[in-house]
Write a structure and sequence with these properties.
Elements (H helix, E strand, L loop, with lengths): L6 E7 L9 E10 L2 E11 L5 H10 L7 E7 L2 E2 L3 E2 L2 H8 L3 E5 L5 H11 L3 H10 L4 E3 L2 E6 L3 H11 L7 H15 L7
Parallel strand pairs: 1-4, 4-7
Antiparallel strand pairs: 1-2, 2-3, 5-6, 7-9, 8-9
Helix pairs in contact: 1-2, 3-4
């Protein structure tokens, strides 16, 4: 990713009550360098299996498709446990995928939830495991496909200007909260 200006998209989901059934809106904030260039939005099924394909489709059908050189995700699952297959997303789009989390996940709790309460939990757990262990870099934890840990650290360092979370994810989080609840809340 060097020093050239790169376009990235960061995705996060809108908040929803635990009892919610159906679709959950996702927002992608497209950045070129540190400039917000646009927004991509769509929906995925809560606890479903369509996040990988939906993100790929949203990017491919957007006017930004040829510019985007990296996909960032605020966690590997959107809409509850709609787990993104980051290896397949990387292969479909032929660009790197970087999952960013503020802290390492509680894998014991995730495994319990997936195996006891989520349809298709075993398959989703395998996707999480296939993505690899979360690795610490630049004050956050990452999973990655098509990008080295060193490159991931450089990208995070370049885009994390307000705290540790890269701007495409921070802004996607704020917009998703504002759209979902009428105003953003909490920190990204």
């Amino acid at each position: 990713m060097g020093r050239e200006v790169v376009s990235v998209v960061g995705f996060d989901d809108s908040p929803f009550p635990r009892s919610h059934r159906g679709n959950v809106q996702i927002i992608g904030a497209v950045y070129t360098g540190l400039r917000l260039d646009g927004i991509i939005s769509g929906s995925i099924r809560k606890d479903g299996v369509n996040a990988t394909d939906k993100i790929a489709l949203l990017i491919e059908r957007s006017k930004f498709a040829s510019q985007i050189k990296l996909v960032m995700l605020q966690g590997i699952a959107l809409g509850g446990f709609n787990v993104v297959d980051i290896q397949r997303l990387h292969q479909k789009l032929n660009i790197p995928v970087l999952v960013v989390a503020r802290r390492a996940p509680n894998l014991t709790a995730i495994k319990s939830a997936l195996l006891n309460r989520v349809p298709g939990g075993i398959r989703k757990l395998r996707l999480i495991e296939r993505a690899g262990k979360m690795e610490p870099i630049a004050g956050v934890f990452v999973q990655r496909a098509g990008i080295t840990l060193s490159e991931a650290g450089k990208v995070i360092g370049r885009f994390a200007v307000v705290g540790r979370i890269p701007e495409p994810l921070r802004v996607a989080h704020l917009i998703a909260g504002g759209v979902g609840e009428g105003q953003s809340r909490g920190r990204a």
